[in-house]
Amino acid sequence: MKVTEYFKEEGKTHISFEVLPPLKGGSMKAIFDTLDPLMEFKPPFVDVTYHREEYIYKKRPSGYYEKTAIRKRPGTVGICASIMHRYKIDAVPHLICGGFTKEDTENALIDLNFLGIQNVLALRGDARKFDGRFIAEDGGHEYAIDLVKQIDGMNKGNYLDTYIVDGSKTDFCIGVAGYPEKHFECPNFDLDLEYLKAKIDAGADYIVTQMFFDNEKYFQFVDKCRAIGIDVPIVPGLKPITKKGQLRSLPRLFYVNLPLPLIKELEKNKDDKEAFREVGIEWCIQQSKELKAKGAPCLHYYTMGDTKTIKKICSEVF
Asked: Which candidate, 79, 72, 128, places its Cα nearest to that of 99?
């Protein structure tokens, strides 16, 4: 079932979770251990992230180092199939531009279609660790909008091979990312909204936001989207702060602001790990309750493998 079909249920706020594939060499047990305790909340779908390749340097017998590309977290497509089989819910694989040619993307979409997966989240993806900026794959997409256009094209039966006539039409529901506090690379907020609208106009069906810690940022973002003609569902993305180091790492890695009242309350408990964690959890609970009360179509939790915390929050909200 398409994600957007769930959002049509009048007056209902759904719940969804995002999981990371295990590190290479890991097993599905890590995914099941994360999701099994959360199934009581009846999520209609679960997102599975995709991570582009990274470079490592392997020392050769000659003493020289060879630059080698590896994928640290492979398996997104297989994990989605396993989730659907085990839990009888929908899975939403993330598709990224980084590390993929257009042909790689087309083949991945064909595999997903054969598996009966109807939803994808189209993202540009992050820069590799040592690149400093995003560098597209040769023959790949530089921007998420181009990825959206390719997926939408396949929904219309258009393939890269121009010799294919009357190609089978896929039927993917396409999600894209939105940034209530602006994408860090965009010069200003209004331009960022224009880029987002262009992705919707290109065929995207819904938006999932970057995490935020001030609900007013989300409400303002929704209002501004509606004002420029973006009328698709906008799903808020949520993550609790549970560790002291996240006070600096989350703003640095995800380019989000932390509200002053939250910082002050966390700072009061910085020497007590459990109290610090409880402050972060309670903040997320209150965020969730307000978003639900004001009619958000779904609350999307970034689990980061922390099932215990996410379950505690959901138990208070749903």
From this structure: 128
Which residues are the active-site residues? 18
**Contact (Cβ atoms closer than 8 angstroms) between residue 48 and residue 91:** yes
pLDDT in tens, 147-161: 999 999 999 999 998
User: How far is residue 243's CA from residue 240's CA, in Å, rounded to a whole number?
Assistant: 9
* Fold of domain 3-317: TIM Barrel (3.20.20)
Q: In the chain, count of helices (H) and strands (E)?
A: 11, 10
Complete DSSP assignment for 62-105: TS-EEEEEE-SS--HHHHHHHHHHHHSSEEEEEEESTT--HHHH
Residue 172 near residue 201, CB atoms below 8 Å? no
Average pLDDT over residues 199-220: 98
Q: What are phi and psi of 194, to 5 degrees?
A: -65, -40
197: Cβ contacts below 8 Å, ≥ 6 apart: 225, 228, 229, 230
Helix (H) or strand (E) holding 106: helix 102-114
Q: What is the rounded distance in angstroms from the CA atom of residue 223 to the CA atom of residue 230?
A: 10
The token duo for 114 is 């054969």
Measure Cα distances from 219 to 18, 226, 237, 294, 295 in Å: 22, 11, 13, 9, 11
Average pLDDT, the chain: 92
Cα–Cα distance for residue pair 104/107, rounded to 1 Å: 5
Task: State mean pLDDT over 99-104.
Answer: 92
Amino acid 136: pLDDT:
80
Phi and psi at residue 257, to the nearest 5°:
-95, 145
Q: What letter does residue 223 receive in the DSSP assignment?
A: H
Name the burial class of residue 173, with classes exposed (0-12), middle (13-18) and buried (19+) by CB atoms within 10 angstroms of its CB: buried
CA distances from 82 to 47, 260, 299 (A): 13, 42, 23
Q: How confident is the model over 251-267, as pLDDT tens digits? A: 998 999 999 999 999 99
